[in-house]
Design brief:
By secondary structure, the protein is of the alpha/beta class. Helices cover 38% and strands 17% of the residues. The chain has 14 helices and 16 strands. Belongs to the class-III pyridoxal-phosphate-dependent aminotransferase family. BioA subfamily.
């Protein structure tokens, strides 16, 4: 807050409790929330003056931290011109330049860009691309997708249908969702890839006549359990897609822009998908924006479908403010030492979390890129674990049986030490 400003914290929180829904939270018995009044660097400031190292990058998006002067300037400059204009029949430089940059940095062949307004919407668009492509090339009967157990792709209905159908967050909707084909979750280690691949190949062959595409989160499954798996699995999926003429979709909303150690997880595997979804860190956490890229082959196929056009067009598609910030965020990332930073974070997280392997309630500790995960042998007591982390000066948001972190890439070593201390406190309390 600004010096001298007043804030009735109690009244605001009371109204929040009575009227505001928060993600995955009950309205009748909500869990506590904390009032943020400021954020800078890697810290959040609460109404009582408490400063917390943000171990979540605001759900994996704020890779440059908060109040970054470059991104602030990009926002202000674009706001001084115009904040929004419809994308139907109009265009603008921020969208064009962002598309140019995305085509430039993503795997070769992803030449066409659809600018959506959230990660979930980008997955919906990707699914439409897959289905329209198959219709356009004369295979309208191909309407199902092949995916893997343990996945998470968003909260809208198309997304929910390709999330884990049993252990995921959307099992209560199973009866009203399209029924897709689920292979086993990819193995955590290389020595399990061959057996897994055999199973996926058999499943794909059995359902090939009705399959339109394959969709996965490459290398790291996010909200489905923070499960990492070998690059060889992506190479197997590319081979299966080619064998059965399936459209391969990589949902890189969480993994894109360096989080797993490569700029995109597809790069680590040396695999080019037919469709790629991007979001979260795309704007450095400033505004909601997502992008769907596809190959010319997919674009031509879907354009040959009976509609002749891609059947989607959000009101805020290509928002100029978001596009300008996204372009600035990508330039900022690529101009810096992000690879060294992510490598350093991985080393520190790996070393710093290792002692928790001996904790009696911990079943696994794992890291990949700038991601650290501690898995417990029971569901986390979210309130107790959060309170313990806050008392240690850290913001975390555990879920299921996991206490994890995806910190901003710019976090200092001192802040990282605090973060590791907060994770340890949360594990002991949760």
């Amino acid at each position: 807050m600004k010096p001298g400003a007043t804030l009735d914290e109690g009244a605001l929180l009371a109204y929040d409790r009575e009227h505001l829904w928060h993600p995955y939270t009950s309205m009748t018995a909500p869990t506590p929330v904390r009032l943020v009044t400021g954020a800078a660097g890697c810290e959040l400031e609460l109404a009582d003056g408490t400063r917390l190292v943000d171990g979540m990058s605001s759900w994996w998006a704020a890779i440059h931290g908060y109040r970054n002067p470059v991104l602030d300037a990009a926002l202000a400059e674009q706001a001084g011109q115009f904040a929004h204009v419809m994308f139907g029949g109009l265009t603008h430089a921020p969208a064009i330049r962002l598309a140019e940059r995305l085509v430039e940095i993503t795997p070769e062949g992803l030449d066409h860009v659809f600018l959506a307004d959230s990660g979930s919407v980008s997955v919906e668009v990707a699914i439409k691309m897959v289905l329209q492509h198959q219709r356009g090339i004369g295979r309208p009967e191909r309407t199902r997708l092949l995916t893997v157990q343990g996945g998470y792709h968003g909260d809208t209905f198309g997304c929910m249908s390709v999330c884990d159908p049993v252990g995921g967050m959307h099992s209560m909707f199973a009866g009203v969702l399209p029924q897709h084909v689920f292979a086993d979750r990819p193995p955590a280690l290389d020595d399990g890839v061959a057996a897994w691949a055999d199973g996926v190949r058999r499943l794909a062959a059995t359902h090939a006549h009705e399959l339109a595409g394959i969709i996965v989160e490459p290398l790291l499954q996010g909200a489905g359990g923070m499960h990492a798996y070998p690059v060889a699995c992506l190479q197997v999926l590319r081979e299966i897609a080619d064998e059965h003429d399936l459209v391969l979709v990589f949902d890189e909303i969480a993994t894109g822009f360096g989080r797993t150690g490569a700029l995109f997880a597809a790069d680590a595997a040396g695999v080019t998908p037919d469709v790629m979804c991007l979001g979260k860190a795309l704007t450095g956490g400033y505004l909601t924006l997502a992008a769907v890229l596809c190959t010319g082959e997919v674009a031509r196929g879907l354009s040959a479908s009976e509609s002749g056009v891609l059947m989607h067009g959000p009101t805020y598609m290509g928002n100029p403010l978001a596009c300008a910030i996204a372009l600035a965020s990508i330039d900022l990332l690529l101009a810096g030492d992000w690879q060294d930073r992510v490598r350093h974070l991985n080393q520190r997280l790996t070393t710093g979390l290792a002692p928790l392997r001996g904790h009696p309630n911990v079943v696994d500790v794992r890291t990949i890129g700038a991601v650290g995960v501690v898995q417990l042998d029971h569901p986390v007591d979210v309130v107790a674990a959060t309170d313990a982390a806050v008392a240690a000066g850290v913001w975390l948001r555990p879920f299921r049986d996991l206490i994890y972190t995806m910190p901003p890439y710019v976090i200092s070593d001192d802040e990282l030490d605090r973060l590791l201390g907060g994770i340890t406190a949360a594990v002991k309390a949760g």
